[in-house]
Amino acid sequence: MPIMLHDQLITSTGANLVVVLSDQSRISLGESAKLDVDEHLVGTSGSRSSTILKLLAGSVHSIVSSGVGRAFNYQIRTSNSVIAVRGTDFEVDFSEGKARVGFNGCGIYTDVRVHSGLVEVENPAHPGAKIEVAGGFATTIPCDAPPLNPGPLGLAAHAVVAGAVSALPPPTCPICTMLNVHPH
């Protein structure tokens, strides 16, 4: 079925959804996910010129078709991140409301795992702190902090993946404090 601009795609528990875009890029939503289609522009040649999706909950796995050297014209956004992509296989998980050990009560996380290609990650609260994550690596964006340094895929927990290679102490989360989010 066709998907229109500003449609919201929602999966329930135990369900998943695969969307194929006009350029054959694939978006796979995991269970209990919510994704808004904010922009999908197609040029005169029929190729995708820009796609912007907003992940509100859950997980999305994207395999993005794109020519080598093109701009980062495919984005997945969460409330605390912008993930810009070209020709890449990657996953994004977004969660809020539950703190993780070692993050001083922060309860909003975007986790990015790159299987192949290159992803540019930033938190809009820190626009100058963009990082690039290559295939085989992952990062986490906790609350309103900049993305953590990338770490290798395959380590046990999200916080360990990103935090294992960061020499900085875990960030505090002013937004979580304002929302009265406490570790469980």
Description:
- With 184 residues, this protein is mainly beta.
- It has one domain (8-179): Jelly Rolls, CATH 2.60.120.1440.
- It has helices at 158-163, 174-179; strands at residues 8-10, 17-20, 26-29, 34-42, 48-63, 74-78, 81-96, 108-122, 131-134, 137-142, 151-152.
- Strands 1, 2, 3, 4, 5, 6, 7, 8, 9, 10 and 11 form an 11-stranded mixed sheet that branches.
- A hairpin with a 5-residue loop joins strand 2 (17-20) and strand 3.
- The radius of gyration is 16 Å and the shape is globular.
- It starts with 7 loop residues before the first strand and ends in a 5-residue tail after the last helix.
List strands and helices in order, with pairings:
Layout lengths: L7 E3 L6 E4 L5 E4 L4 E9 L5 E16 L10 E5 L2 E16 L11 E15 L8 E4 L2 E6 L8 E2 L5 H6 L10 H6 L5
Parallel strand pairs: 5-6
Antiparallel strand pairs: 1-4, 2-3, 3-5, 4-5, 5-7, 6-7, 7-8, 8-9, 8-10, 10-11
Mean pLDDT: 79
Provide the gyration radius in Å: 16 Å
Number of β-strand runs = 11
Identify low-pLDDT runs.
156-184
Task: Indicate the structural class.
Answer: mainly beta
Q: What is the 3D form?
A: globular
Can you tell me the number of structural domains? 1
> What is the helix fraction of residues, given as a range?
under 10%
CATH-level-2 architecture = Sandwich
- Distance between the terminal alpha carbons, to the nearest Å? 41 Å
Approximate strand percentage: over 45%
How is the main sheet built? 11 strands, mixed
Q: What quaternary form is this?
A: single chain
The CATH topology is given as Jelly Rolls
CATH top level class name: Mainly Beta
Number of helices: 2
Order of helices and strands: EEEEEEEEEEEHH
